[in-house]
Specification:
248 residues; mainly alpha
């Protein structure tokens, strides 16, 4: 509800309580401390307190690594989620190389989890691949970024077939990401197809839930406008851009 200061206080208190519990019973409460630190890191990063967020995220990842050593089957999902969070925070700090390392490890863990349990972890792998694509872009590895983005789109198409309501927003987001990468590679026709599909999906989502998805539609229209202008289709680009401005 936007009460960020109070959220930090509650998250910090929770982490403090878990620290005390871990001192008395590490086996029982280490996972709780790790989850608490992950929550704290997310709140702090949302407030732009990147240094503190990184400390919490690194500690979380360290705890999860120790848990995985003791019980890989039980705690690998926690480590994967922790690394995804860490990659985003490192990226926010401009530490692109380290962010990429964390994102690559995260994707590798989710691949292994999907092999064992596809239904449970395919959505997480798709999310991880989208994140990895962004991290690869930040270090100029466009071809690999495209591969990751295309794989994410493919996974999310399959998820949408099984459960449209749950996964259509994710597919729309992945298509936007793919369109940006394709346009950056000069593959304008393919970029346009992805961007137009993303806009179409967001329009349908807005009809069902305007408050939730209008920001996504506006972002998608801005992306479409950029691609249309790159193709020299200025009139259509203007229409999309004006609609995005109106929505915003």
């Amino acid at each position: 509800v936007g009460r960020s200061g109070e959220a930090v206080e509650a998250a910090e208190e929770a982490a403090g309580l878990y620290r005390e519990l871990v001192e008395a019973s590490p086996a029982a409460y280490t996972r709780g401390l790790a989850m608490s630190l992950s929550n704290l890191a997310n709140i702090l990063s949302g407030l732009g307190r990147w240094g503190e967020a990184l400390e919490a995220a690194e500690e979380d990842a360290g705890l999860c690594r120790a848990l995985v050593e003791a019980s890989p089957e039980a705690y690998t999902p926690d480590l994967a989620a922790s690394l995804n969070n860490l990659a985003n925070i490192l990226s926010g700090l401009g530490r692109s190389g380290e962010a990429l390392e964390a994102a690559e490890e995260d994707a590798g863990l989710y691949r292994a989890l999907v092999e064992a349990s596809p239904e449970a972890y395919t959505p997480d792998l798709a999310m991880s691949l989208s994140n990895l694509a962004n991290r690869l872009l930040s270090v100029g590895r466009w071809g690999e970024a495209l591969e990751a983005a295309e794989e994410a789109v493919g996974l999310r198409r399959a998820l949408v077939e099984a459960s449209p309501e749950a996964y259509t927003p994710d597919l729309a987001m992945s298509l936007n990401n793919l369109a940006k990468i394709l346009s950056g590679l000069g593959r304008w026709g393919e970029a346009l197809e992805a961007a137009e599909e993303a806009v179409g999906l967001y329009r349908a989502l807005v009809e069902a839930s305007p408050a939730a998805y209008t920001p996504g539609l506006a972002m998608s229209l801005s992306n479409l406008a950029s691609i249309l202008s790159g193709l020299g289709r200025w009139g259509e680009a203007l229409e999309a851009a004006e609609e995005a401005v109106g929505l915003r």
